[in-house]
Write a structure and sequence with these properties.
- The protein is α/β, with parallel strands linked by helices.
- It folds into 2 domains: 219 residues, Spore Coat Polysaccharide Biosynthesis Protein SpsA, Chain A; 214 residues, Spore Coat Polysaccharide Biosynthesis Protein SpsA, Chain A.
- The chain has 14 helices and 18 strands.
- The strands form 2 sheets. Strands 1, 2, 3, 4, 5, 6, 7, 8 and 9 form a 9-stranded mixed beta sheet that branches. Strands 10, 11, 12, 13, 14, 15, 16, 17 and 18 form a 9-stranded mixed beta sheet that branches.
- Strand 15 and strand 16 form a beta hairpin.
- Helix 5 packs parallel to helix 6.
């Protein structure tokens, strides 16, 4: 058995020495590079300091590639302690060599406050293009693939180096997930301030978003899935509709919040006719009775309260039911039953105007995060300014959501049909619509998203989060393949 692995890890000092010494004890490990600019005592004679500012820049990836003189490079991307399972390092190397993989990653466990918790991760697929895909804190990279990726860099990134590296590797190499819990991670922090040596900028920071967008755009161009800013035209003035816009609220057991949602629609100030279609999915908690009183107050011409005969509908299915009602207008505008439109009454006016301004088939607004009592809470405004008319539909393959509220040209929804699921249905629509049509944007906050203990996305387990991510990655895979074919046809 030869020494086949060089290891690279951000080093904060003696609190990581047990991890470093475990690496040194493996016959497979040739050299351990401690990434730090501090003057540190080397834990063992396999160690060498690599003076870099963190792990995620292109400068760091190039330096790691330059030092990678073994078959594989173990790259630890976070400041952690890692304890490997029995023969786990050997297992990583065996899978990598057997599959001739570019990157191998595995399930792991978290050790928090002395408690061990399993942390499964998901399979990488064609649509796993989001920059926050969880490989865990470490990955084993084929050094040849790593050197190829580093040589392919054309821009200097402070934050998108690792992201750009794995996109580049994925073009020619497989990324293999080992569905085994091969190691345990625990965070380390040697400073009283609580700040770590390699504190990275908040991922919501615009500078980070710009870098990530550049990286994915380069990748899409290289593989032939990038779409030019050329869009099909829609004749929005055509057609006969009962109203200009319909707000659609799917609801199931939201007696606590549905009245607030409805009233936020009824105060809208517009110079066009609109209505509200509430699809009551067989509520049993008093929601139905609340809605009946609101219909009586505002009139059945303003609030269309319908209950499907079917009992197998998710949120997407309820949307399908709503847009196929005879009362549905030209534009269908989303509102969740536990959220509200902003109190200035301009939400619908701004959303509808954006359709005409951009000749758009879909419009996405901006929202503010609040608590249950509608008090703003961090991070506050979510405006998704990373969406640009020129490149938004390409960048949409990287980000995990498009924003809220969403509005749609209703005839399109009747044609494409909405997936009958409770998560990701709107994101999938945005991807497919943007393949051919422009998506308009409203950057003002027009929507308040409540965060409370009964949200559908509150306190998700790792397994639930993984299921959501697998589904969205699958939607991206469908769209990625469709765009490859479209670009081929366009020549």
């Amino acid at each position: 058995m030869g020494t086949k692995i060089n290891c690279f890890l951000p080093y904060v000092g003696g609190s990581q020495d047990e991890f470093v010494n475990e690496l040194a004890g493996s016959e497979l490990v040739k050299k351990i590079f401690l990434v730090t600019k501090e003057d540190v005592k080397l834990p063992n004679d396999k160690c060498e300091v690599l003076a870099l500012n963190g792990m995620v820049s292109t400068e760091s990836v190039k330096a790691i590639a330059d030092k990678s003189d073994a078959d594989y490079s173990m790259i630890v991307t976070k400041e952690v302690n890692i304890s490997f399972g029995y023969f786990a390092i050997e297992r990583f190397e065996y899978i990598a060599s057997s599959a001739n993989a570019g990157i191998v990653y595995s399930n792991y466990s978290d050790l928090v406050d002395g408690k061990l918790a399993k942390h499964p991760v998901i399979e990488y697929q064609a649509g796993s293009l989001r920059d926050d895909f969880n490989f865990g804190p470490m990955m084993l990279v084929n050094s040849e693939a790593l050197k190829q990726a580093a040589a392919n860099f054309t821009e200097d990134y402070d934050h998108a180096g690792i992201y750009s590296m794995r996109l580049s590797i994925s073009k020619d190499w497989s990324l293999e997930h080992v569905a085994e819990f091969l190691y345990t991670q625990s965070d380390v922090d040697s400073r009283a301030s609580g700040k770590k040596i390699f504190d990275y900028v908040d991922p919501a920071n615009r500078g980070v978003q710009i870098e990530m967008e550049k990286a994915v755009t380069k990748y899409l161009k290289e593989v032939g899935a990038w779409l030019k800013p050329e869009f099909k035209e829609i004749k929005l003035e055509d057609g006969d509709f009962p109203v200009e816009a319909s707000v659609i609220i799917p609801v199931l057991n939201r007696a606590r919040t549905v009245e607030d949602a409805v009233r936020s629609v009824m105060v809208q100030k517009t110079d066009f006719d609109f209505n509200l279609i509430v699809v009551d999915n067989h509520s049993t908690d008093g929601t139905t009775e609340i809605l009946a009183k609101l219909v009586e107050e505002f009139g059945s011409d303003k609030i269309v309260h319908v209950t499907p005969e079917r009992r197998d509908l998710g949120i997407g299915g309820c949307w399908n039911y709503g847009v196929h009602q005879d009362e549905c207008g030209k534009f269908a505008i989303q509102l969740d039953s536990d959220d509200v439109y902003t109190s200035d009454g301009k939400t619908l006016d701004k959303m509808v105007a954006a359709f005409y301004e951009s000749n758009a088939a879909m419009v996405v607004g901006s929202y503010t995060i609040t608590d249950a009592d509608l008090n703003e809470i961090p991070p506050g405004l979510i405006d998704h300014k990373e969406w640009t008319p020129e490149n938004g539909r390409n960048n949409a393959l990287r980000i995990n959501g498009l924003g809220a509220p969403r509005g749609f040209y209703a005839p399109f929804l009747r044609d494409v049909k909405i997936p009958n699921v409770n998560y990701g249905e709107d994101y999938g629509l945005g991807l497919s619509i943007s393949r051919n049509y422009q998506i308009g944007r409203v950057y003002d906050s027009v929507y308040l998203v409540r965060r409370w203990d009964d949200n559908s996305d509150a306190s998700l387990t790792i397994e639930q989060t993984n299921a959501h991510n697998v589904y969205k990655d699958r939607l991206r895979s469908y769209e990625f393949k469709a765009r490859l074919e479209l670009v081929k046809k366009q020549g």
